[in-house]
Amino acid sequence: MSIRLQILVPQGLDARVRKAAQRSRMSKGGWVRRAIERALAEGGPAADPVAALAALGAPTGDIEQMLAEIEAGRA
Question: Does a structural domain hold residue 36?
């Protein structure tokens, strides 16, 4: 069963999607479905910004100390 998804896009983006679909010899809807599938399959850290930050392994600190350092830097 398919569900209708209706989105509004600027004219320029619609034209780019139409041309890309034509180059791929696909319908515009088929091209968009394929693009969505690819984007979801790629996922990765960009799909979850918090996971991307956690993956950096950057040092962290006590929130009160960090806020105090920020305030001290403003002086």
Answer: yes
Distance CA 46, CA 49 (A): 6
Each residue's pLDDT tens digit, 11-66: 999 999 999 999 999 999 999 999 998 888 887 656 677 877 888 888 788 889 98
Measure the CA–CA gap between 75 and 73, rounded to whole angstroms.
5
Instruction: Tell whether pTM > 0.70.
Output: no
Asked if residue 6 belongs to a domain, the reply is no
> What is the identity of the amino acid at 31?
W
Query: What's the CA gap between 7 and 36, in Å, rounded?
Result: 13
Amino acid, res. 70 = I
3 lies in a domain?
no
